[in-house]
Amino acid sequence: MRNGKAETDRQIQRVDKQLGELGNKWGSFTEGLLERSVQRIMVKDLGITDTSFGASKYKNGKTIEIDVLGVSNGTNNRVVIAEIKSHLRETAIEQIQQQLNDYLYFAPEHKDKELLGLIACISAAPNIIQQALKAGLIVLIVNDNLLEYYSTNKQYTIKDYNVYDEL
User: Fold this and answer.
1) Closest CA to 114 of 65, 62, 159, 78
2) Distances from the Cα of 102 to the Cαs of 43, 62, 91, 99, 139, in angstroms?
3) Tens digits of per-residue pLDDT, 107-120?
4) For the chain, counts of helices (H) and of strands (E)
5) I want to staple 57 with a disulfide (CB 3.0 to 4.6 A). Which of 15, 61, 93, 106 is the partner?
6) Helix (H, G, I), strand (E, B) or coil at 52
7) Rounded to whole angstroms, how far apart are CA atoms 167 and 42?
C-alpha cells in the first residue's frame, strides 16, 4: 500500500510541475499576443516615444521587472508602466500599484515625469475593471475587435503616480 501512495505522490508532483509550466507558457503567450498592441496605444494615444519589453531595473540589490515600459520626453513628459495578464485579478492591480510606488526609487531620473499605470489582459470581470479604473489605471481588454480601451471618462481619472520625494 505504501508503494501505491508514493507513486500517487510522485504523479501529483509531476502534474503540479506540468501545470506550473503550462501557466508560465500561457503568461508568455499572453505577453507576446498583447505587447505590440500595448506599444501601439502607448505611442498613438499616450504620446510615448520609447518602449521597452521586459524592462528590468536594479538598485542596491533590489529589482523591478516591468512587462512594457514607455518613456517620453518633451511635450509628453511621462512614463507608462504596463503589466500584461491573461486574466485581470485584484492581485494584478495591487502588483502594478506597487510597481508604480517603487518605480522612482529605481529611476529617480524620471522624478519630473507624469507616471501612469496600464494593465492589458485577455479577460476581466466588470467589477475588477471598475476597481482598476477607480485606482486611476488604464485598462486594455481583448474583445471581438481585438483590444478594448478603458480610460478616463466622467467618473474616472488616470492617476499620476509620481509622488517622488527627494530625500
Assistant:
1) 78
2) 24, 10, 16, 5, 20
3) 999 999 999 999 98
4) 3, 6
5) 106
6) strand
7) 31
pTM score: 0.72
Q: Cα–Cα distance between 46 and 24 in angstroms, integer?
A: 30
Q: What Å distances lie between residue 19 and 5, 12, 24, 26, 162, CA to CA? A: 21, 10, 9, 10, 38
Cell of residue 36, nine digits: 505590440
Neighbours of 40 (CB within 10 A): 12
* All cell numbers assigned to 17: 510541475
Type of residue numbered 155: Q
SS3 (DSSP) at 126:
helix
DSSP state of 147: -
Domain assignments of the chain as residue spans, ordered by start: 33-150
Which of 79, 166, 159 has the alpha carbon at shortest distance from 115? Answer: 79
Q: How does pLDDT run across 17-59, given as a tens digit for each residue? A: 555 554 454 455 456 567 788 888 888 888 999 998 888 999 9
